[in-house]
Amino acid sequence: MARKIWENLEEGALCLLLVFMVLITFVTVVTRYVFDFPLSYIDQLVPNLFVWVTFLGSSAAVKHRAHLGLSMIYDAFPGRARAALDVVILLGTCALFAVTAWYGGKVVALEVENRMMSSLGYPSWLIGLAVPLGSGLFVIRAVEAWWRHRRGASEPAAASPGI
Questions:
Q1: Is residue 160 part of a domain?
Q2: Does the residue 159 lie in any domain?
């Protein structure tokens, strides 16, 4: 059960966030144009949730090896060179997202320390937390995807229980 939750973590969270974003947008449009009672303060919630969608979406994409790439260049390399190129790509992307997670964590710590609040009355660090958590999850998923690709498994569900 825990493995199934882990394998579908991003997709489940993304579904919930997107449904919530659509409902918020629908309610604000109806209240504004049907009842002439704009709830403009709640409109700010949708772009804030989009930050979470962005980072969770990047993690889900790397998990399925669905990020855009320069396949023409990659395909020009022979098999052994591709394996080395995979490692270089993995190290580069993991380094970038590890640094992003570290700096994002520092920003969240500042937001907690300074008690910065948004106009909706929730702590701003709840939105900022998407950066270090999403970036950290990206690194984990990138390593998992690289390992599955190296072993020949294509999807998380096809992976053996050993990882």
A1: no
A2: no
Predicted TM-score (pTM) of the model is 0.80
Q: Is position 162 within any domain?
A: no
Domain total in the chain: 1
Number of H helices, E strands in the chain: 8, 0
What range defines the domain where residue 82 resides? Answer: 2-154
DSSP string, 32-94: HHTSS---HHHHTHHHHHHHHHHHHHHHHHHHTT-S---HHHHHHS-HHHHHHHHHHHHHHHH
What local confidence, expressed as pLDDT, does residue 137 receive?
Answer: 94
- Whether 44 shows a pLDDT value over 50: the answer reads yes
How far is the C-alpha of 129 from the C-alpha of 109, rounded, in Å?
9
Separation between Cα atoms, residue 85 and residue 82, nearest integer Å: 5
- The predicted-structure confidence for 12-43, as pLDDT tens digits, reads as follows 999 999 999 999 889 888 888 888 887 777 77
Does the CA dihedral 61-65-66-70 come out positive or negative? positive
